[in-house]
Design goal:
The chain has about 300 residues and is of the alpha/beta class. It contains twelve helices and nine strands.
Length: about 300
């Protein structure tokens, strides 16, 4: 169903395609744990373009491609003519002659869209300033592992900056039929167009998307509470100012007291303990958070296998 397609946004996926990714990810994880080889991409090569640095993204895609029987090439701005001003459409057409797929982690979402427009091979969005679809698909897999396969009706509360994670959570929860509530300062709400499209998606699955400013109200009776760093990559100069603005949005024991007693807490990492999340809360939910980190490997393997296979 996804063969030959790009994976730029969860909004672009059907409900069935989301299920296909999650089901294969769970299968590949089980096989990996059992020591069963699954060389679904034997002889295939993935180009990994990094205009933003990463730990989890690079390691999980590179190891994942190896486990699928293929090869991954790390390509930084210093390695490509992109770093010297070559048009992205030319890079796309050249790489399409050499590779079987491209993964890109960059700043502007328009760069991913242009790359996909001119490439003749699948393009996977590994993060932009607007969206982080691989992470949110990973999080849906993790929630299924801890809350059961049927996600419909579960409530996810996001607390913090209305960033690329918030945007992608809206799309992911809409496809999964979940209740999504985001608490952000008024000036830091998620993207308006993404919100509009996510609400449209939600009407098809019985999901709901709600934005507010009150973190305590947002997490009330929540099954899942998620947060992210207050200053994303590229916003380092705003860090001290953001710490003051987002202080009321810290995920701590008091805030979690409003959530369901069986709540799980998630964080895509890296985490800044004492800022968006306290040390004690992170450590109390470390099993879920590091399952989430591991699941980047299995979910991205499923995405690569389905699009590049």
């Amino acid at each position: 169903m996804l063969k030959g397609k790009d994976m730029l946004s969860i909004h672009d996926l059907s409900v069935d395609e989301v299920e296909e990714i999650l089901a294969l990810a769970a299968e590949l994880k089980a096989k990996q744990k059992a020591g069963i080889r699954h060389h679904l991409l034997e002889g295939k090569t993935l180009g990994m373009i990094f205009e933003k640095s990463s730990t989890r993204t690079r390691v999980s895609f590179e190891v994942g491609m190896y486990q699928l029987g293929g090869q991954a090439l790390f390509l930084s701005n210093r390695d490509l003519q992109l770093g010297r001003g070559e048009p992205i459409k030319d890079t796309a057409r050249v790489l399409s002659r050499y590779l079987d797929g491209i993964m890109i982690r960059t700043y502007g979402h328009d760069r991913v869209v242009e790359l996909a427009e001119y490439a003749d091979i699948p393009v996977i969005n590994a993060l932009t300033d607007l969206l982080h679809p691989c992470q949110v698909l990973t999080d849906l897999l993790t929630i299924r592992e801890h809350k059961g396969k049927n996600l419909k009706g579960l409530k996810m509360a996001y607390v913090g900056d209305g960033n690329n994670m918030t945007n992608s959570y809206m799309y992911g929860c809409a496809k999964a039929g979940m209740e999504f509530v985001a608490a952000t300062p008024k000036a830091y709400q998620p993207d308006a167009e993404v919100t509009r499209l996510a609400k449209e998606d939600a009407t098809l699955t019985g999901a709901s998307i709600t934005l507010m400013e009150d973190p305590e109200e947002a997490v009330r009776d929540a099954d899942i509470v998620v947060t992210d760093t207050w200053a994303s990559m590229g916003q380092e100069a705003e860090h001290e100012e953001r710490k003051k603005i987002f202080a009321p949005y810290q995920v701590n024991k008091k805030l979690l007291s409003y959530a369901d007693k069986r709540v799980i807490v998630m964080h895509c990492l890296p985490a800044y303990r004492g800022e968006e999340i306290t040390e004690d809360v992170l450590e109390a939910h470390a099993n879920v958070i590091f399952d989430e980190a591991e699941n980047r490997l299995h979910t991205q393997k499923a995405i690569m296998a389905l699009t590049m296979g």
